[in-house]
Amino acid sequence: MTDTPPPADDALRATAAAAVMVPFLPCGNIDVIADFWTGLGLTVTYRQRRPNPYVALELGRIALHYYGMPRWDPEASHSTCVVGVPDTTPLYERFAAGLRERFGRLPVDGVPRITRPRRRANNAGLTGFSLIDPAGNWVRFSRLPPPDAGPVAPDGDVTVWVTEEGAGPLARALDAAVVQADSHGEPAQARKALTGALRRATDQDRRAAEDGATVAPTPVAELARALAYLVELCVRTGDEQAARDAFARLAALAGTGGPAVDPAVDPAVAAAVDDAVAEARAVLPPG
């Protein structure tokens, strides 16, 4: 017996290693799709109108192909694909800039829209974001795991949930809300759950202060990140006033009308709060 694979297996592995998979996504109008993606930095590499509408777009090794379907309804779309990249930040920044140029703000509701890069507890804690195109397709971008990382085997049929070490109740609730809204596409349920978690954290902190308890308060950075995401969820569910109320709470953490976080005392926390404020402000409608 030998562990050396037969030559045929070597050829198969080499072929599979060099393979390229290309998603075919539906749309109602290939010209609308081409205009959208070229505005975000992709290039049209192929287009035909007959016998069937078809367009191919690329950016580096990212390839998206679309076929036209009469009477296509973006709201009824369930099509999706995943793009694995070493770092999601450059792509997100390029796409966000293009979307702001087109729409005047970052679209987080309706179609098209984009979610922010956030860690996904249901995806080994890797950072990811989704761009929902004009046809309603979810193009999901995820950071690739390290080359030496092995597969995360679930226990039975249950997804392995990866939370940050030392995460408190509010941070875990934020993880769950991100999965609910950004992975499952259910922002209303995510908003309800996150609102409840924020209320519980506030009540616990108030009771601890009143009773002189030694229980540590909710970390300011966790509170800021949760409030920033709540602002986005309120916008995504069409409740602008609730979004502005949540933003006011967040701004108070940064010293606007409330207790400031002194960068000289805790620069990491101050930076986290500033980032959360900037993130939330970017999704608020003008006014």
Q: What can be said about the biggest beta sheet? A: 5 strands, mixed
Morphology: globular
Count the strands? Answer: 9
Strand content: 15-25%
Average pLDDT for all residues: 88
Tell me the distance between the termini: 74 Å
Percentage of residues assigned to helices? 40-55%
> In terms of structural class, how would the helical and strand content be classed?
alpha+beta
Order of helices and strands: HEHEEEEHEEEEHHHHH
Number of helices: 8
Provide the gyration radius in Å: 22 Å
Low-pLDDT segments, ≥5 res: none
In short:
Helix content is 43%, strand content 16%.
Task: Summarize the structure in words.
This is VOC family protein. Helix 7 packs antiparallel against helix 8 (267-283). The protein is built from eight helices and nine strands. The mean pLDDT is 88. The chain has a domain at 163-287. It has 287 residues and is of the alpha+beta class. Strands 5, 6, 7, 8 and 9 form a five-stranded mixed beta sheet that branches. Strands 1-4-3-2 form a four-stranded mixed beta sheet, covered by helices on one side. The longest helix has 25 residues, at 187-211.
How are the SSEs placed, and which strands pair?
Blueprint: H1 7-17, E1 24-27, H2 30-38, E2 43-48, E3 54-59, E4 62-68, E5 80-85, H3 89-103, E6 113-114, E7 118-120, E8 126-132, E9 138-143, H4 169-183, H5 187-211, H6 220-236, H7 240-253, H8 267-283
Helix pairs in contact: 4-5, 4-6, 5-6, 6-7, 6-8, 7-8
